[in-house]
Amino acid sequence: MHTPSKGIPLKHLRASLAIGTALTAMIALSSCASNESTPAASGSGSAASSTGTLSGQLNGQGSSAQGNAQTQWIKDFQTANSGVTINYNPVGSGAGRTAFESGGAQYAGSDTYLSDAEVKGTFALCNGQGIDLPDYISPIALAFNVKGVTALKLDATTIAKIFSGKITTWNDPAIKALNSGVSLPSTKIDPVHRSDKSGTTHNLTDYLNKTAPSVWTAAGADAFPFKTGEGAQGTSGVVAAIKGGNGTIGYIDNSQVGSLPVAQIKVGSTYVTPSADGAAAAAEAGTVASGRDASDFAIDVNRTTTDSKQYPITLISNLIVCKQYKDPAIGKVVSAYATYVTSTEGQAAAAKVAGSAPMSAALIAKVQAVAKAIK
């Protein structure tokens, strides 16, 4: 589904936004929202750009990684557009795409883009196909809870062996070799994975399949492929399982880490901590999948990079919408919401609450053109 294709390199995707300016714009946005009789300039992409003209309800489902960002986006958008109600259920990327395809949701959040088969399928609410609009770029962290251990270094092969059940204790020689000077206990490893179909799982398993194929033989997929460790529902479930155990390790969106320690991942000859900058650099080096509608921005990350500036376990999450809705009234609201989410202001809001990497001005301009054209 997400094998990197000979697509178009993404030039200048690294976050080049002036965050201070963007946050200033958010303050101005809030001021606008408090005065509904003064709409923002047309086409600005701000949440207030349609103040007083929009009404209706949207139901979205999908990515729990996007959860914090969606909560903030919805709050901002509804403040500026009091006639609109938006609900978002973070049930996981796979369930979100299924709901969107069947007509159970007007939009989906997904940490993996629509597969070729899904694009060719039927979308109940669309005249034509659904499309992928990147809206949230973030690193996936390997968070752990091992008594007495506060720092951990791992390479791809070792991660693959941990999550496939081939390494079972924390003092295994393979882990000790990567962590000189660290006192590692004989505690049993409890690898925590998503029990639901998840785009976060897809991104991690795609990374492991491409970087440690002799160990991780399964291709990247939304469903975790091995019957090992402990399954948990949603990002919040994984976080709870990690915190509630001893010897646990799991994969979660970096915005959900909280006080948990996270492992450094070996990239080339360097160990790298997940960061917004690293995720932005990985996105910049990605490619847009070929053979799709020009309005579809399906982006693949280079998982095998040796550039330590890039964090290879990065998810590029998408807002999945109809290019044209059967109901123009829905299309109007989706267009306005998608325009805000992918705007400079929307990206700055997500960065502030979730630590995500704002899209570059160049990518924002391209995605905004599509978002504004949704009907």
List the helices and strands and how they pair.
Layout: E1 8-9, H1 19-33, E2 56-62, H2 67-80, E3 84-89, H3 93-102, E4 107-110, H4 116-119, E5 130-145, E6 153-154, H5 156-163, H6 173-178, E7 190-194, H7 199-211, E8 230-232, H8 234-244, E9 248-253, E10 264-267, E11 270-272, H9 276-284, E12 287-288, E13 299-300, E14 314-322, H10 328-341, H11 344-354, H12 361-372
Parallel strand pairs: 2-3, 2-4, 6-10, 7-8, 7-9
Antiparallel strand pairs: 1-12, 4-14, 5-9, 5-14, 10-11, 12-13
Helix pairs in contact: 1-11, 2-11, 5-7, 10-12
What is the number of helices? 12
Query: How much is the radius of gyration in Å?
Result: 20 Å
In CATH, what is the class of the largest domain? Alpha Beta
Mean pLDDT: 87
* Structural classification: alpha/beta
Largest sheet: 8 strands, mixed
- At CATH level 3, the topology of the largest domain is D-Maltodextrin-Binding Protein, domain 2
- Return the string of H and E elements: EHEHEHEHEEHHEHEHEEEHEEEHHH
Question: How do you describe this structure in short?
Answer:
The protein is 34% helix and 19% strand. With 375 residues, the protein is of the alpha/beta class. The strands form 3 sheets. It has an 8-stranded mixed sheet with strand order 3-2-4-14-5-9-7-8.
